[in-house]
Amino acid sequence: MTRLLTLRYWGCAVHVFTRSQAHQQHALELGAVSATEAGSSGVALDKAVVFAPAGEVVLRALEAIRPGGIVSINTIHMSDIPSFPYAKLWGERTIRSVANATFRDGEEFLALAVIASLRSTVAVYPLNKANTALDDLKHSRFNGQAILQVS
């Protein structure tokens, strides 16, 4: 959700699609214009970023963007994107994959985080509770990020 705060800092209207009602509420608290289950905001979006590792979500994102819009896929691994009719891509819509962030990307983001006064919601787990943290992540038991505390 830190990305949402960054986009809000830049003056973007952000619409969030997620299955979890807790994540929808969190997105609204952070300033999203709308937060619903994967579907449509009723607004033709300029851009969509897919973080879910599910190829079918790319099709939903294509349906949500306007002609000329861009769908960026930001996952390390994703299931196959199902076959779809060319009409979903028509209108100069673009699908783009995004590689993992570089060290320089991280430096630039941290500098922006200071300027934009970004704050993250963090759940802290001791290192010996790493499996609990992973299980909590899998079941959406926290909003924001989780960190493992080494000492």
Notes on the structure:
With 151 residues, the protein is an alpha/beta fold. The chain contains five helices and seven strands, in the order H-E-H-E-E-H-E-E-H-E-H-E. The chain folds into two domains: 2-120, 3-Layer(aba) Sandwich (Rossmann fold); 121-151, no CATH class. The strands form three sheets. Strands 3-4-5 form a three-stranded parallel β-sheet, with helices on one face. Strands 1-2 form a two-stranded parallel sheet. 12% of the residues are buried. The model has no long low-confidence stretch (mean pLDDT 86).
Radius of gyration: 17 Å
Count of distinct structural domains: 2
What is the 3D form? globular
Q: Might you state the CATH topology name of the largest domain?
A: Rossmann fold
Q: How do the strands line up in the largest sheet?
A: 3-4-5
Distance between the termini: 27 Å
- Number-wise, the strands total 7
- What's the helical proportion of residues? 25-40%
Helix/strand layout:
Layout: H1 2-9, E1 15-17, H2 21-29, E2 34-36, E3 45-50, H3 55-64, E4 65-73, E5 94-97, H4 103-115, E6 122-126, H5 130-138, E7 145-149
Parallel strand pairs: 1-2, 3-4, 4-5, 6-7
